[in-house]
Amino acid sequence: MPKLRQLVNRSDYPPACSQCALRKSDAFSPVSDAQLRYIEAMRSDRIGYSAGSHIKPENQRATALYTLYSGWAFRFKTLSDGRRQILNFLLPGDLIGLQEQFSDGPSHGVDAITEVTLCVFPLTKLWDLFRDHSGLAYSVTWLAAREESNVDENLLSAGRRNASERIAALLLHLHRRATHLGLADLADNGSIAFPLTQSHIADALGLSLIHTNRSLRKLHLAGLHHIEGGRLTILNPKALERLSEYYDQPTRQVPLI
Amino acid sequence: MPKLRQLVNRSDYPPACSQCALRKSDAFSPVSDAQLRYIEAMRSDRIGYSAGSHIKPENQRATALYTLYSGWAFRFKTLSDGRRQILNFLLPGDLIGLQEQFSDGPSHGVDAITEVTLCVFPLTKLWDLFRDHSGLAYSVTWLAAREESNVDENLLSAGRRNASERIAALLLHLHRRATHLGLADLADNGSIAFPLTQSHIADALGLSLIHTNRSLRKLHLAGLHHIEGGRLTILNPKALERLSEYYDQPTRQVPLI
DNA sequence: CGCATTGTTGATCTCCATCAATAATTGTGG
DNA sequence: CCACAATTATTGATGGAGATCAACAATGCG
Fold this sequence. Notes:
alpha+beta, five-stranded antiparallel sheet, four-stranded antiparallel sheet
């Protein structure tokens, strides 16, 4: 699973920060010119990974701080007999490797689901960022807190929701996040690209693969959603919300990218 | 469940920050005099809550940022039919209300387990702290990241460990945290105060109360641990570690208190 | 000392895991 | 472009970990 280095000239190759496609989405709050220049100077590289590759092994500390520019990834932990728990999914704009800068215990792995591209920020400059650009430091903390709230929600699912409720909550959660990033196809019932396999879903929700399949199928047969050709369409949001008691609200993202 | 306001002159009443008992523990990294003065000036109040009281309701935003000075508390979410999931336990030095400053979605409640005392920091000054004291801002982010890693670990339990493994992991985790804070009684096999009821354990691990009781009992009968008179003693750490595959390491806390 | 909370144990049921097998889909090299 | 391999999805059958129902004991508190 090699890194992809031949990214230049591809449409998903991260451009200059001032041209950042993410920033054009209204999911991201504005930054000043000075902040933009600082980010641009801080960014040391842009790299890509192919679908399914390991961005960061579970037992190894990140050597840099990354922003996910395009594609989907996930954080996970595994037990020694191979049981895997996906902690949360990473979408464009999310940070990778922040936790490691702030704790020295065991960590988590990060795998790419689709092909991804990342912007690289050297760790050594993180302290400088806190010192020189408190607004950006605030954004970093904002991202960390938001990620935790995603994990909180997932823990509520794994701990207290049954299989159907977990799936309903996850589908709505991911659909909302992708839509919020402007990734929904409005001409197609607001469908979003959905690259997860059922195995990803099972490992995120703490279910077996087979039971995940049956529960997913049940929701599909009940007409609540539709997954086909790598795209997810929410057909009955009300019913899904009732199942999951879904009620979290979109938030305005403060970007570091 | 009223607040306790009559705290002055009690031994657990938070003193001046320069005399902070927490800081004397080597779990906390040193801060400069200037930082100390800033924290002291930022702190607007000290309050107490009785055991079992609600520090923050689930649906209401925190009106301030708090540091837990003494006692135990927990963060939780509930579904509308009452199913409750405890997200993590809060021990002295932990922050309360940070997430709310950084997201506007639904949140979590915070309840006191024992009687607790808190130091209060006005929200409005958080931005100032980031601007004027990047070292402290870094600490805040550090605390947020560490809390997330606690939730990560709990999610691994709820999602992929069986009942005995979950309990083993939780007991070790709490014992380690308390010991790290200097709360262990070295003259008594390193036992720690353990104010959780089995109901707390069940809700933290995503188990039923009854099954929690049985599993806990099994570990006790196997001689792995001992809980009595509100104290926990780890009798066979090796066996508990084997059960839970426990391997996370202590970290040096950067305090904001 | 009475009442409420917390802990313990048994019996039964069910949701979900596991085992097993087959279709559908995707990817790949010839 | 097709044949073949490898993933991924689907369905059935069976078993078990843990939920639920029901009591009762122990502890603690006002």
